[in-house]
Write a structure and sequence with these properties.
Blueprint (H helix, E strand, L loop, with lengths): L2 H37 L6 H18 L3 H19 L2 E6 L5 H10 L4 E6 L2 H10 L4 E8 L3 E2 L1 H9 L3 E9 L3 E4 L10 E4 L1 H5 L2 H7 L4 E4 L3 H8 L5 E5 L1 H7 L2 E4 L9 E8 L9 E8 L6 H11 L4 E8 L7 E8 L6 H13 L2 E10 L2
Parallel strand pairs: 1-2, 1-3, 5-15, 7-8, 7-9
Antiparallel strand pairs: 3-4, 3-11, 5-11, 6-9, 6-10, 12-14, 12-15, 13-14
Helix pairs in contact: 1-3, 2-3, 11-12
Amino acid sequence: MSELDELRRMIDEIDAEILRLIARRVELARRIGGLKWASGLPVADLEREEEVLKRGRELADSLKIDRELTLIALRALIGICRRAQSPGRASYLGPRGSFSEEAALKALLSRGFEPYPMPTIRDVFRAVESGDAEYGVVPVENSIEGGVRETLDLLLETPLRVCGEVQVRISLNLIARPGTKLEDVKLVLSHPTALAQCREFLGRALKNVRIEDCPSTADAVRRALELDGAAAIASKMAAAIYGGEILASDIQDVKDDMTRFFVIGRRKLAGSGRRKTSIIFRLQHRPGSLHEALSIFASKRINLTRIESRPVKERPWEYLFHADFEGDGEEDEVCIEALKELGEKALFLKILGSYEELG
């Protein structure tokens, strides 16, 4: 037996032992779940799970292994155990390796939900509405590009509520087939938005390469790995999933680029404890109506964190307003009173939900 074969045999033994330990952990979690159900306690224990993740961060750093991927593995392990107690599914905007998948993993994996990709944002909504998934994860706002129009429009149509939110830092990386060097790259593939966010890097490090659009950053990675001299701009997760090598990290022009995602469904999810409420409203088309509406929140010292307009499709040059504010519109008396006053002034008011930050 060669040295390579022996090393692979040792890896196989370690993998088998890891799986046996996972099975043992699942059985312990199942027993804990049974005790909690019998005592009328909630199965989820977010404080305990955060302790596990904190220890994982510290251990990953001490062992000098990738912290980000270690946390994904730990969230998956927590999720396997949670699914043994209460299985479920969660849809997200795919394909695999997208930032929406990263958001879904961050928000829901440790809660036992099986994430599965959908081709469009509308399909994510429909999967939850039909009962194929218990929750869905959709992008709603980017710190640079602003609101995601399709999500904002579908929130008006859907009977679902916003059950939670999660924020993901958009870290863009140049990914290629293993062994490729930066000077070998002649073609760069990615989604148009990602390409636009990396103009400075492309102009400085790859000024003479050909640029080509792809439907998604994950698709770009899959294509790049099939071509000589090609590279893709995408997430570290996409590189790990599809087997790419990262040639350059954090190449986006704005380093603190964040995307906010809504978790949609029918039941609230416990998270950070800090509550926010999202609403959609429409006002009379007359001078001062928006000022009067916003004055309601100012007079009650309620902090509006976002307001954005979307056209009313059947009425040209009239608008719906999407707004978020700090506080619970379902339990906080001050917020409830503000929504009541707004409802008296508005032609239309939809409360999307009060929710907490997850992950």
